[in-house]
Amino acid sequence: VSPGLLVVAGSFAAFRLLNRGLERLVPPPPSARRNRWKWRNIWTSLAHSALPNTHNPSPHRFCLHPGLSEDMVGTHPPGAHSLVAVSVGYFLEDFVDMLCNQKLHQSWELLFHHSVVIVCFGTAVLLHQYVGFALVALLVEINSIFLHLRQILLMANLVHTPCYRLNSIINLGTYVVFRIATLAWMTRWLFLNRENVPLATYTVGTVGMAIMTPMNIILFYRLLRSDFFK
């Protein structure tokens, strides 16, 4: 068994244990007690989003690694492979959590999103290639912190507060910079390097970008309409 798969399995188990114990660490407010699993799920997602940005080998530090911008296929800093493997374990855990606790018509978009991420990141983990490309994709987790905080504030019935308003502004700002702009850069990189990437891998990446880009644009519109146009 490859070390990468062991990290994925360990990450899955760790996030599963965290999910089970979160209700004791962060008790749900009265407004969230009707949907306890969702409360735990969001806090688990927040923990994953914060992990790459608080731990030493964070994606934005990796992007400054010499040679990474020239070679996104074979070059990656020490620890980068493990970081991507940890994310695969989280997305697998979140996929299972939603599949077990939420109706399919309510979660199919996120399940579809997670499937694409698991395939793309899993390819990088198994091949030990395109890890740098996956690290760039992990920059979206900077925005995910505020996206998950928004859900927590909604569940805690704190919509009409300055904290929610401030988070909404930061959320939209980081959404444009770290999610939409990042996906645009990744799409551009694939287009410019199509001759240097094997057909199978190029197909996986292109399909992934073709799915993720419109999904994120639609979510941006929903956030804008909900938080600013209502």
UniProtKB/TrEMBL annotation:
Q: Which PROSITE patterns does the annotation name?
A: TLC
Residues covered by the TLC domain: 34-230
Residue ranges of coiled coil: none
GO CC, alphabetical = plasma membrane
Q: Which SMART domains match?
A: TLC
How does this chain sit within the bilayer? Multi-pass membrane protein
Alphabetically list the UniProt keywords: Membrane, Transmembrane, Transmembrane helix
Where in or outside the cell it occurs: the entry states: Membrane
Q: Does the keyword NADP apply?
A: no
Keyword Membrane annotated: yes
Q: Which domain of life is it from?
A: Eukaryota
Q: Where are the transmembrane segments?
A: 133-149, 169-187, 199-224
Task: Tell me the InterPro entries matching this sequence.
Answer: TLC-dom, TLCD
GO BP field: membrane assembly; phospholipid homeostasis; plasma membrane organization; regulation of membrane lipid distribution
- PANTHER family, per the entry: CT120 PROTEIN, TLC DOMAIN-CONTAINING PROTEIN 2
Protein name, please?
TLCD2 protein
**Organism annotation:** Eolophus roseicapilla (Galah cockatoo)
Q: Which gene encodes it?
A: Tlcd2
